[in-house]
């Protein structure tokens, strides 16, 4: 389960109830696609935060603040009217728009932690593919859901951040590593499913927005991560 000779830090997994079966998952310090994607998220968040702090709020080509421009053209806006450009840009870019610091911390840390655990099981490339596929499809789901349930979606709702992709990666990791526990704080062993049971409701409660579209995106992200893991298990059992 050791993923690299380049050590940034180590995570320790063992079978539930059997600490003697402990295996090491090595987390690369700076290298790797997962870490690169995390650094990109951090960079975008810092740029947006600095811009707001310095009151660079007016876009020269628009009579609106920077945050309004971000919500309308970089995130996926629930406001009408829709445009194909707005849909496309939002679907591709909304993952990097973190207007809520709490969402940023939850999403990026969940993706980093569970992404590295999942990498030890299916490889880093597959983790990135799962994450980006979920991000893209969840954006489509948000748009469709908002149109179908427009009256219930809340006025001016905006989808931003990477929580959908992080939830899918976390769900797949817990399903594929369901027999395992992780060692924390020296000698504390916690089954991964218990970590999931704590983190998922907490993230939903803290990040929830009053929109049926967001509820559907949450459910879709969990379902997609679960289905991905089930297909992986079926492939392994059939080989």
Task: Describe the model.
The strands form two sheets. The chain has a four-stranded antiparallel β-sheet with strand order 2-1-5-6. The protein has a two-stranded antiparallel ribbon with strand order 3-4. With 239 residues, the protein is an alpha+beta fold. It has a single domain (32-177, 194-238), classed as Up-down Bundle (Rhomboid-like fold). Helix 4 crosses helix 5 (124-148), helix 6 (163-176) packs antiparallel against helix 7 and helix 6 packs parallel to helix 8 (212-238). The model is unreliable at 1-7 (pLDDT under 50). The protein has helices at residues 33-53, 66-74, 84-93, 101-122, 124-148, 163-176, 192-207, 212-238; strands at 9-15, 18-27, 76-77, 158-159, 180-184, 188-191.
Task: Produce a short descriptive summary.
This protein has 239 residues and is of the alpha+beta class.
How are the SSEs ordered, and which strands pair?
Blueprint: E1 9-15, E2 18-27, H1 33-53, H2 66-74, E3 76-77, H3 84-93, H4 101-122, H5 124-148, E4 158-159, H6 163-176, E5 180-184, E6 188-191, H7 192-207, H8 212-238
Antiparallel strand pairs: 1-2, 1-5, 3-4, 5-6
Helix pairs in contact: 1-4, 3-5, 4-5, 4-6, 5-6, 5-8, 6-7, 6-8
Structural class: alpha+beta
What is the CATH fold-level name? Rhomboid-like fold
User: Whole-Å distance between the termini?
Assistant: 20 Å
Profile the largest sheet.
4 strands, antiparallel
Poorly predicted sequence stretches spanning 5 or more consecutive residues: 1-7
Q: Which series of helices and strands comes N to C?
A: EEHHEHHHEHEEHH
H/I helix tally: 8
Q: Could you tell me the strand content as a percent range? A: 5-15%
Strand order of the largest sheet: 2-1-5-6
Count of folded domains: 1
Q: Work out the number of β strands.
A: 6
CATH architecture descriptor text: Up-down Bundle
Helix content: 55-70%
| Global outline | globular
Per CATH, the class reads Mainly Alpha
Task: Give the mean pLDDT.
Answer: 81
Radius of gyration: 19 Å
């Amino acid at each position: 389960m050791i993923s690299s000779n380049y050590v940034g830090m180590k995570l320790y997994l063992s079978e539930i109830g059997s600490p003697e079966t402990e295996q090491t998952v090595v987390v690369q310090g700076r290298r790797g696609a997962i870490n690169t994607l995390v650094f990109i998220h951090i960079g975008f968040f810092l740029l947006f935060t600095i811009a707001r702090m310095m009151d660079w709020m007016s876009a020269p080509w628009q009579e609106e603040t920077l945050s309004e421009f971000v919500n309308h053209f970089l995130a996926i806006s629930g406001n009408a009217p829709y445009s194909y450009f707005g849909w496309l840009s939002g679907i591709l870019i909304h993952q990097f728009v973190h207007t809520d610091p709490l969402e940023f911390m939850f999403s990026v840390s969940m993706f980093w932690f569970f992404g590295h655990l999942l990498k030890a099981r299916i490889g880093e490339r597959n983790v990135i593919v799962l994450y980006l596929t979920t991000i893209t499809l969840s954006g489509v789901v948000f748009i469709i859901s908002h149109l179908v349930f427009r009256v219930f979606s809340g006025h001016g709702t905006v989808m931003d951040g990477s929580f959908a992709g992080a939830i899918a990666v976390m769900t797949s990791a817990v399903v594929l590593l369901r027999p395992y526990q992780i060692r924390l704080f020296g000698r504390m062993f916690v089954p991964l499913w218990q970590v999931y049971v704590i983190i998922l409701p907490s993230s939903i409660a803290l990040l929830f927005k009053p929109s049926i579209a967001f509820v559907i995106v949450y459910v879709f992200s969990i379902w997609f991560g679960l289905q991905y893991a089930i297909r992986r298990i079926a492939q392994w059992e059939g080989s």
